[in-house]
User: What shape does this take?
Amino acid sequence: MVPLMHSLIFASTLFVIGLLGVMIRRNLFFLLLSLMVMNNGAIIALVAASSYWQQSDGQVLAVLAMVAVLAQACVGLALLMKLFYRRKIFNIDSLSEMKG
Assistant: This one.
């Protein structure tokens, strides 16, 4: 069995990598991927804590969170495809410019 501290360090490392990806990258596709990495870090922390305390509540919550992450990915990729079809760009900075 993996100790709780090792699992939480791994989960926090994933979360920080995702957070850095959100803060640094300007590409919308990589922003979506970074958000998914952050969510996976939180899910790993839920599963690790749940298995440490031998409760199934955290694992059930992790499964529900995974379903929410998959739904988020589907909606995000659909919006990304529609945006690329209309504007031919993935850059976030050019999306914030107003027409005028």
In short: The chain has four helices and no strands. The chain has a mean pLDDT of 89. The two ends are 60 Å apart (CA to CA).
